[in-house]
Amino acid sequence: ARVTPRFAGLCTFCRYPMLEAVAPENRPVDWVIYGVPFDAGVTFRPGARFGPRAIREASQYVKPYSIEHGVNICDVLSLADAGDAPIKPFALKGTLDSVSEFAVGIGQREKGARLMAVGGDHSIAYANMKATWELRGRPAGGLALVHFDSHLDTIDMTGGEKWSHASPFRRAVEDGILNPRSMLSIGIKGPINAGTDLDYARDNGVTLVTYQRWRSEGVKTIDAFLARLSDQPVYVTFDIDCVDPAFAPGTGTPSIGGFTSAEAFGLIRHLARAGRGLDVIGADVVEVLPDRDVAGITSLLAGHVMFEVLCLNALARRAGRG
User: Fold this and answer.
1) CA pair distance 36, 101, nearest whole angstrom
2) 102: Cβ–Cβ under 8 A, 6 or more apart, which residues?
């Protein structure tokens, strides 16, 4: 930034280079970030299809050094923006298949690269999780997941549709991609449509830390979950609506009474477990709706969430893990 101003040049995620611009001797990269401009899976306000574009612009002000962790992620990780995945605006399952194929193709070309998808609505998490699972050899036990959200996203069907943003993790469990007993959902809060909406997660062993539970007991349950996982690799999914709309108004399914921005960052940083990091094998940040944003604060928040998640992996790499 002290050579080329942040307000100049083409926008990429956090000013990381475009993948095709990375010199051959510096490839493959550690993390490939790509946008998924798709929101046909929403159940309330549309517009998250413009999220990747807005987050790219806002993330020009994301810097590489973390004071809290004492790590410069660009000293540890090679990062690149792969552009946007191909989508089919009128086909939900068709888009998820297209995005997954795109992501797998990147992973196969960039051997060992991890994938971060920037949405778009939360339905796209299924596609990036599937690609991550396939690139890791389709482990029989499924992936472990840390899930930040106001909603569980384990509903079977909404309006006759099984692939909306209300269902990605249920579909992932059914397809063997996700192990529900290794899934932690943080920030869940209501009201919800019916008490039975909680049944699938509870019956299948998902660890639930509602917002109120976190307020009451702190990180006790989160720490117990992490201890049980030990050093198992983890996928991280972050729905921006877990943050209170006072801090993140730009989302299509706002849920009142959530985390402040600082609380959300604190919880992500807590996953580092005393500076050891977390072996994050894939991630997504979703549900930013720029038309409902105020002064771009939600898009800016999303860009910094991306940074905080990457910090976890940078710490793990520095510690010789991941």
Assistant:
1) 13
2) 34, 85, 86
Question: Can you tell me the distance from the alpha carbon of 292 to that of 95, in angstroms, rounded to the nearest whole number?
Answer: 24
Q: Which residues fall within 8 angstroms of residue 101, CB to CB, at 6 or more apart? A: none
Write out the DSSP string of 274-288.
Answer: TTT---EEEEEEE--
Cis (ω within 30 of 0) for the bond into 254?
Answer: no
Q: Which two tokens stand for residue 165?
A: 């943003």
Alpha-carbon distance values, 207 to 221, 243, 318 (Å): 8, 19, 29
Query: Strands 31-36 and 280-286, how do they pair?
Result: unpaired
Two tokens, residue 256:
């009142």
Q: Record the tokens describing residue 266, joined without a space.
A: 């604190």
State the alpha helices, DSSP H only, in the chain. 51-58, 73-76, 92-109, 124-135, 168-174, 199-203, 211-217, 220-229, 261-270, 297-318
pTM above 0.85, yes or no: yes
For residue 227, CA distances in Å to 136, 231, 274 come to 23, 8, 12
Give the C-alpha separation, 97 to 95, whole Å.
5
Helix 124-135 with 92-109: angle, nearest 10 deg: 30
3-state secondary structure at position 36: strand
Q: What is the pLDDT of residues 45-78, one digit of tens each?
A: 999 999 999 999 999 999 999 999 999 999 999 9
